[in-house]
Amino acid sequence: MKTASYLSWAGTFTLTIATTLITNTPVRSEAPIFRCDRSSGIPTTVVQSQRHGSVKIIEWKSTQFGDKFDPETRCNLVSRKFEKFAKAGTLKYFTTGSVNRQPVICAVASQSSPCDSESMLYTLRKDVSARETLKLLLDIKSGATGNALNETESRIYVDFDEIVRAKSQASQASQASQASQTQPLF
Predict the structure, then answer these.
(1) Which Pfam family is one of those matched by this entry (predicted)?
(2) Which of 41, 67, 86, 166 would disulfide-bridge 91, Cβ 3.0–4.6 Å?
């Protein structure tokens, strides 16, 4: 009788400890967090990730969309869209397209996903090339992105993780260069 009581107590104790450990263990999310940062004076969409820290993605400078969509408003709207697409698992590639006859930049899950109103990150002016804007936005002309670019005849795809990695490395190199310039040589 004592043995059965002891086993029952030991089982309950073990289950309680295991439950406590499981429910009190912090869960580390790998999901990036997006925000509109204004610390530099320019509204900037920034991603915060465990692997790369804080990385600037887009600086919002254009005032050509009027007062309704000034740089800060666009930064806030697009940063929320980045967050939404990241949580949904569809922020794998940037690509280009057209919505309501306007050039747009989209976030898609695969290279076969459509760039449409559901995947649209933001709209460009009609006189602007979405392909060239995407290349400029992601600093592709400088060669900083390596294998992040997949250009087809109809559309350009840029791997989001590769862009964050490349921008993070460029930022770290810039900070290291600035630090070495401020250190006395002797």
Answers:
(1) COP23
(2) 86
Q: For residue 72, give its domain range.
A: 33-169
Query: Among 119, 111, 40, which Cα is nearest to 78's?
Result: 119
Cβ pair 104, 121 in contact under 8 A: yes
Residue 6 belongs to some domain of the structure: no
Average pLDDT across the chain, whole number: 76
Q: Quote the CA–CA distance of 91 and 178 in Å, as a whole number.
A: 32
Find how far residue 100's CA is from the centre of its chain: 25
Q: For 14-72, write each residue's pLDDT tens digit.
A: 444 444 444 444 444 577 899 999 999 999 999 998 888 888 888 899 888 888 899 99
Is 5 within the bounds of a domain?
no
Q: Is residue 99 part of a domain?
A: yes
Number of structural domains found in the chain: 1
Q: How many residues does the chain have?
A: 186
- Is residue 171 within 8 Å of 149, Cβ to Cβ? no
Distances (CA, A) of 167 to 3, 28, 72, 162: 64, 23, 22, 8
User: Any idea which residue has 């060669």 for tokens?
Assistant: 143
Q: What is the pLDDT of residues 118-134, one digit of tens each?
A: 999 999 988 888 888 88
